[in-house]
Write a structure and sequence with these properties.
By secondary structure, the chain is of the alpha/beta class. It has a single domain, classed as Alpha/Beta hydrolase fold, catalytic domain (Rossmann fold). It contains five helices and nine strands. The protein has a seven-stranded mixed β-sheet with strand order 1-3-2-6-7-8-9, sandwiched between helices. Strand 4 and strand 5 form a beta hairpin. Helix 2 packs across helix 3. The mean pLDDT is about 90. It comes from Solilutibacter tolerans. Belongs to the AB hydrolase superfamily. AB hydrolase 2 family. Keywords: Hydrolase. GO terms for molecular function: hydrolase activity.
Length: about 220
Amino acid sequence: MSTALPETVEKETGPTPEWSVIWLHGLGADGNDFVPIAPELLRPDWPVLRFVFPHAPVRPVTINGGMRMRAWYDIREMSLTNRADVVGVRESMATVNALITREGERGIPPERILLAGFSQGGAVTLAAAAIGLQVAGFIALSTYLPMVPDTPPAAASTKPPLFMAHGTFDPVVPIAAGQLGAQQMQAMGFDVDWRVYPMQHQVSAEEIADLSAWMDARFRQA
């Protein structure tokens, strides 16, 4: 059975996009959350991009007293070892695959797709990378790896590059969790560009500038 596509917000930087950036929001937000960030990343000589900002499904979240909100998976407790609902993570990874398939149908293959996510969305991004999803690169901001695959993904000649960033004062996802995730991804063979900023659970101007430079390198190497 195919996975239903979520509702999305889409922004294109011109006609006939050549690349796509699929960006997953954090807990309780929606696809509109990172729309204002897109223009701040852009450089004038980049290829035409399509930014795809999907909305997570509405579901009860345990740590918030069962309140229903947009979430890529349930968060059962604050402990990292039992925080993520693994079934929900896998469902969201299937949603990511469905979005990538649709981009292919619109003329943009996986090698010209970047998968990005913030917080809970970043956790889904890392989980998808860990099981061997092949795209042009991964972006995981203020997040952690929610599950380590039971068996390592099949070896590839090169793994997609990975940009990870975190705030030193993050009260939601402690920086130690982000560092552990970066170390785990490195152990799997990923080339992790790990950045730390003096901020909380947010995005900073310096971080956006560094991410723009990282994306620029991806486009130039294609």
